[in-house]
Amino acid sequence: MPGVTKEQIQQARETDLFAYLQFHEPSVLKRDGPNYRHREHDSLVYVTGKKYWYWNSRGRKINALDYLIEIRGYGLVDAVNQLIGAAEVKKRTRTEADPEKEKTEERGNPAAESFSLPWARRCATFAVNYMRCRGISGEVILRCFRLGIFYEARYKGEAVCVFVGKDDEKKARFACMRSIMGKLKKDVYGSDKRYSFCYPPEHPGSRQVAVFEAPIDALSHATLQEMEGWKWDGYRLSLGGTSGVALFSFLERHPGILRVTLYMDNDLAGLVNARKIKSALRKDPRFKHIRVGINPPRTGKDYNEKLLYTLQQTREEPEVSRQKQAAVSI
Fold it and tell me: Which of 163, 78, 81 is nearest to 118 (CA)?
């Protein structure tokens, strides 16, 4: 495998995954009795006594390299470099730290890596063209730019779309990158999944939230509304997958929400997780008053496929009409 050696791969496998998450993704760790559980993947449990992560849904242990490749979507080379690089950064940080900070880290509470957005390119031609090819309207794209929740950046020389999630003070707390030409799908390190991408309503204070797996689906839904003139003005929240972490955090911060509609993908994973989220909301006393609906797309796997199909049908209708008129005139 070009770029990494067998020794480096083994070193990456032996990286302490719990320490790695404490340093890079502290927000995903939650206490579960004497153990820890992953907030986004509930079946991942850190067994404190034996010091390993167990993936209950897969019935096996998981190491740091497995985590980055199978859960975070890294390629092998990127995952190895990330883990080896992270280990070096951590060593350097400890060396340069003051004694009090070093003692804190030795007690198992390393400081989280600070989150920062990728550098934005002044020209976003590639990102805009990509979004238009996915059917997203110019008005929706422009509003995203104005809100500072979408832009174009470079990652390892490749043009990428960046979707940003902000907190209530409009501070960026989350970002995910999606390749324009390739298959890259990656959260920016230090991202807090509780503040995932959200396309806000035109008027603040809405009591409704539509929930999607990906930002492109949320923006596809907004484009469909623009095309078909729906009278709806709510939040459009992306989960960044199928975990309900972002939704539960959003509802905690927006206690006025009365309606949640889960627009998950129309596949087994999407439907199963939609039912799990709905059940969890009903069981939580904080959210029992909220009406929850499940509304997968009737056409296509997700709402972007539904949008593209709708656009295709819209383009074909005038052609069919012209053919009928020509037949009548003959």
Answer: 163
